[in-house]
Specification:
Strand order of the largest sheet: 1-2
Shape: elongated
Largest sheet: 2 strands, antiparallel
Number of helices: 8
Strand content: 5-15%
Helix content: 55-70%
Radius of gyration: 18 Å
């Protein structure tokens, strides 16, 4: 689990790297192809990359304490991406253009950006009366939820 706001920032940056590597190594205007699309044409290599990168993104979501809805959305994108590999040739074509890793990464990044992070324990904040202040500060900053890292 992330313990500091700096840990959350590192998760966001690492997820950004996987997003680009997976789905936009080669960019042509608004379109791009990444390792996921390129490796899908090599038997087993594409499957290994798809599952490995997807699992890594899910672990980062758990480390960042993403909301259950975000984790479910990420899992749905990644499951759809993995399922396309089961269809010979047509699955490879779909996998090349379906940017599931980027979609899952964007969902996690949006969740991170919409969260007010507090480097304290929730129990201490509630017992001291600071919890309500954290909620007010989060709402004032346009955040949807408060997550305690301590």
């Amino acid at each position: 689990m992330a313990r500091t706001v700096r840990d959350i920032e590192k998760i966001w940056l690492n997820v950004e790297g996987v997003k680009k590597l997976s789905d936009r190594v080669i960019g042509i205007g608004p379109f791009g192809v990444g390792m996921d699309g390129l490796l899908t044409w090599i038997p087993w290599a594409g499957d290994a990359y798809t599952v490995g990168a997807g699992a890594w993104l899910m672990i980062q979501g758990l480390r960042a304490q993403a909301s259950p809805a975000t984790l479910l959305r990420m899992a749905a994108y990644l499951a759809a991406d993995t399922a396309t590999a089961a269809v010979p040739f047509a699955g490879a074509v779909v996998d090349t253009v379906f940017v599931a890793h980027a979609m899952a990464a964007k969902a996690l990044q949006k969740d991170i950006e919409s969260t007010h992070w507090v480097e304290a324990s929730e129990r201490d904040a509630r017992s001291s009366g600071d919890h309500e202040r954290h909620v007010r500060e989060g709402r004032a900053a346009g955040k949807r939820r408060v997550v305690y890292l301590g």
